[in-house]
Specification:
This protein is of the alpha/beta class and 413 residues long. It has 15 helices and 15 strands. The strands form 3 sheets. Strands 5-4-1-8-11-12-13-14-15 form a 9-stranded mixed β-sheet, sandwiched between helices. Strands 3-2-6-7 form a 4-stranded mixed β-sheet. Helix 6 (112-123) crosses helix 13 and helix 11 (273-280) crosses helix 12.
Length: 413
């Protein structure tokens, strides 16, 4: 096991065992004569205890040194939206009542589960990735299962609905810019619920679910936790699994109502700048469309204050941002791409998320994680669909090293 993977594994084991004993980070730190910040860094995989500390930690957490070091969980589970994307590339996006020419039509996988999952296995074929969600008993469902299986994803957690079709989106992508608009049918995704997930059978280290605001059963109100999603994430954390969530840029205006309850039981929260503003109520851009960096940071501080345990990660075309639980703020500008490089941006957010998840799983520090994620997103931009542009980790690292980054001063205030 590599050093960074070892650190993340030990950290996840410490966090899981500590939480099971209802012990705070402060309480554990006090017994070990270290700072809260030290325990926080261990649990985030940014280092691990000295070998002389392991016996005491094991005793305090009711386990053995071997179990503390090796644990029994590995891989990443992706839960939530599974759908087909019908991508239509147009010459323009027309005004109401006007016509645009469709230049090409293609079908691809879509949604958090297949997009992020396939991206992850393309990045690292040795990583165990599993899928959790619902499809319909139709050609769309068969296509999605086939594509995930072909890419080495465990689909044993995917349930087939007997009442709803497979979810789908018509994606209108403008040829010259890659900008896209989605027309979505919820389908079987609306039925996916916590009852479809057998937590006792999960053997993953991390569970990522998306998208809040597009999973009807998870978005329902819960009297105790606020939402069904929040209740589900609380159960996942009790199993010792690190949780992360992604949000959709929905127009209902229900960000605060549906997203905030889940944050209390989230280890790592992913959003773009629009979604982040939906939670905080603070604009991310000025009237000229430039990013307001102070507002970005304030938004992330508000999101973190809602209970996120490890990191808030916010992304936009200009940059990626991370705010960790210990207050460390990191900003990484996007990579400067040559004219004509971008073929589409369908799944770009999922590709960025996959890069971050891989970085977290592998024990990258926050800056390296954001740099890697921006490289993964660039791979996605080189293709019209959501996954075919993704490349392996070595290609991504070489791509990052050989390309300059944009100047944020030109697009921020």
């Amino acid at each position: 096991m590599k050093e960074n993977e070892k650190a993340l594994s030990i950290g996840a084991n410490i966090a899981r065992l500590r939480q099971r004993r209802n012990m705070t980070q402060a309480a554990l730190a006090e017994r070990l004569y270290v700072s809260n910040k030290t325990v926080s860094k261990w649990e985030r995989g940014l280092g691990y205890p000295e070998i002389t500390q392991l016996p005491m930690i094991a005793r305090l957490l009711g386990t053995t040194v071997d179990h503390l070091m090796l644990g029994d969980r590995h891989g990443i589970a992706l839960a939530g939206n599974i759908l087909t994307d019908c991508v239509k590339v147009t010459d323009i996006y027309p005004e109401k009542g006007m016509l645009a020419n469709v230049k090409s039509v293609s079908t691809a996988v879509g949604g958090c589960v297949p997009n992020t999952g396939i991206d992850l296995v393309k990045i690292d074929g040795q990583l165990k990735v599993s899928a959790l969600g619902r499809i319909g008993n139709d050609e769309g469902g068969k296509y999605l299962l086939s594509e995930m299986l072909k890419n080495g994803i465990d689909v044993s957690g995917v349930v087939t609905s007997s009442t709803s079709p497979t979810s789908f989106s018509d994606v209108m992508s403008v040829e010259s810019t890659g900008e896209r608009t989605f027309f979505h049918h919820r389908g079987a995704n609306a039925e996916f619920s916590p009852a479809d997930v057998n937590l006792s059978l999960l053997n993953c280290r991390m569970l990522h679910i998306g998208y809040i605001l597009l999973l009807d059963s998870f978005d329902r109100a819960d009297e105790e936790y606020g939402t069904v999603m929040a209740a589900f994430l609380a159960r996942v954390q009790k199993e010792g699994i690190l949780t992360s969530v992604d949000v959709v840029s929905d127009s209902t205006g229900l960000f605060a109502e549906k997203v905030i309850p889940a944050l209390r039981y989230t280890d790592n929260a992913f959003m773009n700048e629009i979604e982040g503003s939906g939670v905080s109520g603070i604009p991310a851009r000025d009237a000229a469309g430039r990013l307001i960096l102070a507002n970005i940071r304030r938004t992330m501080e508000i999101i973190l204050s809602k209970g996120v345990r490890q990191r808030v990660i916010l992304h936009c075309p200009e940059a990626g941002f991370c705010l960790s639980a210990d207050g460390e703020f990191t900003c990484v500008p996007s990579i400067k791409l040559p004219a004509g490089y971008i073929k589409g941006s369908v799944g770009a957010g999922d590709a960025f998320c996959a890069g971050c998840l891989y970085g977290i799983y592998s024990g990258f520090d926050d800056r390296r994680m954001l740099e890697f994620a921006s490289g993964a997103a660039c791979c996605n931009l080189a293709a019209q669909d959501s996954v075919s542009g993704m490349r392996d980790k070595n290609y991504i690292l070489e791509f990052i090293a050989s390309h300059e980054r944009i100047s944020l001063e030109e697009c921020t205030v």
